[in-house]
Amino acid sequence: MTRTPDRPSRKRLAAVALADALALTPVLTTPALAFFGGGGRIVYDPQNHAENILSAARALEQINNQIAQLQNEARMLMNDALNLAHLPHSSLTRLREAVGETQALLDGAGGLAFDVAAIEEAFAEDYGAAAARGAFDEMVEGARRRWEMSVAGFEAALRVQAGVVGNIEAARAEMGALVRESQGAVGALQAAQAGNQLLALQSAQLSDLAAAIAAQNRAVTMEAARVASAEAQGREALARFLDYGAGYEPSPVRLFGE
Description:
Distance between the termini: 205 Å
Strand order of the largest sheet: 1-2
Mean pLDDT: 75
Low-confidence stretches: 1-8, 13-37
Number of domains: 2
Largest sheet: 2 strands, antiparallel
Radius of gyration: 52 Å
Structural class: mainly alpha
Order of helices and strands: HEEHHHHH
Number of strands: 2
Helix content: over 70%
């Protein structure tokens, strides 16, 4: 015959089960969910405790996600502000002054101007076949005028070259400043502006180079045209000198007293 456990044995089993349940759950200073049972004892509900912990963890995770999202948005706004920041350094004024100085040297150069109409007029009146027209005094005056224009062309070329060389040091200093600004740029706009100014500096240097080449080639071309005109003028002068006309023709001569 099986013996039925007495009441104290049942109480001990219940106590052991409750102890095992408490050991499997996190220990909290205050139970998440407790209520008073019969006899004024606190009864612990582990299922409700686990649900409360899970709910709290989910709520904390949502809050952390919202905080992270706000931080990302703040960083994006800060990056946008940096990307929109303008470069504090500008070389536009200095580059304009350098290009203006070179242009002034070209405009103020003596001799034949850089103008198609003026060149056509000069060659039609003073150079080439035109040098061999007119009286001897006119040809001498034309030769003197062409020589003066050639000398002025060489002088202008030297002045332009001197101006271009003078701009090299300023361009070097400006290039160094722009490179430093580019390396220290805090945003995309500043980096782009520094790059654009470096391209503008390069364009100004190319303009100086083109001006120097144009001035030098003009001087050389004017001298070559002067030499060609002098040859044409020399041939004309020799032809006039050797022109004896129709030659000697005999005619009747009357002596004195006849």
